[in-house]
Amino acid sequence: MEFTALQIAQMIGGRVEGDENATVCTFAKIEEGKPGAISFLSNTKYTHYIYDTQSSVVLIDESVQLEREVPATLIRVKNAYEAVAHLLQAYESMKPKKKGIDPLAFISPSATVSEDCYVGAFAYIGDGVKVGKGCQIYPHAVVCENVTMGDGCILYPNSVVYHDCRLGSRVTLHAGSVIGADGFGFAPTPHGYDKIPQIGIVTIEDDVEIGANTCVDRSTMGSTYVRKGVKLDNLVQIAHNTDIGENTVMSAQVGIAGSTKVGQWCMFGGQVGIAGHISLGDHVNLGAQSGVPSSIESNQTLIGTPPMNTRAYFKSQVIFQRLPEMYKELQALRKEVEELKKS
Q1: Going by C-beta distance under 8 Å and a sequence separation of 6 or more, which residues neighbour residue 144?
Q2: What's phi and psi for 302, nearest 5 deg?
Q3: How far apart are CA 274 and CA 291, in angstroms?
Q4: Are 119 and 97 contacting, i.e. CB atoms less than 8 angstroms apart?
Q5: Helices in the chain by DSSP H: which ranges?
Q6: Which of these, 70, 60, 61, 72, lies nearest to 23 by C-alpha position?
Q7: pLDDT tens digits, one per residue of 304-339
Q8: Is 82 exposed, middle or buried (0-12, 13-18, 19+ CB in 10 A)?
Q9: Contact assessment for residue 74 and residue 58, using Cβ atoms and an 8 Å cutoff
Q10: Is 318 exposed, middle or buried (0-12, 13-18, 19+ CB in 10 A)?
Q11: Which candidate, 135, 143, 103, 129, places its Cα nearest to that of 116?
Q12: What's the rounded Cα separation, in Å, for the pair 133 and 169?
């Protein structure tokens, strides 16, 4: 399907500079542009590519000033990154969705699967499951007993939802993700560790996306919560009885220990670790590999272990790199002091 620059500009509220009849039928990175493709420029580090890109159309911020003419037709927008996200969403929505139940799928007679759903080969839907309208359950996905799912959910291959868990609408589980496995609860005894049964559930609210091989553990009692709009990258671990606030995002390999409450609109970089039984406020941003041993108030951007203000952290890193040299100087000063004392 082809679109002209003018049609695209009208879709995203942009302004065309160049040939408004230039047509595109695919997307490409600006450094890998080709005729018939649309690219975008939002990071100034890539500005030099715009002068030679072969893409027919480039989305660009209104604020960007170019040094010379470019061969591509430009569409000026307030935010090129947001604009291309909107276009990609529209592109994705145009793809035909699979429908129907493969004869090799297993669906319990007591389960309810709504209209327009797709259930792939070797998928399993257990007793008492309720699946909303337009859901996509891919091959080898497993939905255990008494799970409820809202409309428009997508379960990719080998994702698993354990018994009794609750999924809202438009929840996406990528391959290998596990929702509702037992929380890590064991009581130490003289003879080893006795398992503490995890009788709670996981509740995932609307518009949540969970990456490949990410795990959200069921609670000991009550529910582990992943609130509306949360986005979790691959290989994230959410422990039992946690409560992840709305629109919080986490990069790969973040680990949240049990009974921790995370506020709304937080952002965690890769490999951040959060201790258990603490609270983080709203709008807390944590740099990659930060370790958090205690609660944090709202509206802070921190990094390190324990986390500190980013300016202080980078200053301390400069000092840390000089520690061997500073230690030598200290030893030399000690020696001089000892010699002065003797004299």
Answers
A1: 126, 129, 160, 161, 162, 163, 165, 180
A2: -135, 165
A3: 6
A4: no
A5: 5-12, 80-94, 310-321, 323-342
A6: 72
A7: 999 999 888 888 888 889 999 999 999 999 999 998
A8: middle
A9: yes
A10: exposed
A11: 135
A12: 9
First CA to last CA distance, the chain? 91
**DSSP H helix total and E strand total for the chain:** 4, 40
The CA distance from 104 to 88, in Å, is 33
The rounded distance, in Å, linking the Cα atoms of 105 and 99 is 13
Residue indicated by tokens 């080709």: 34
Joined together, the tokens standing for residue 286 give 């944590």
Q: What is the pLDDT of residues 71-99, one digit of tens each?
A: 999 999 999 999 999 998 888 888 888 89
In DSSP terms, 244 is beta-bridged to 226, 262
Beta-ladder partners of 131: 113, 149
Q: Tokens 């009974």 — which residue? A: 259
Q: Is 240 a catalytic residue?
A: yes
- The structure's pTM equals 0.86
Residue indicated by tokens 């429908």:
99
SS3 content of the chain, % helix, strand, coil (to 5): 20, 30, 50
What's the residue count for the chain?
A: 343
CB 196 within 8 A of CB 182: no
What's at 8, amino acid-wise? I
Token look-up 């790969």 returns 252
Place of tokens 């989305």: 59
Q: Which of 163, 191, 240, 277 is catalytic?
A: 240
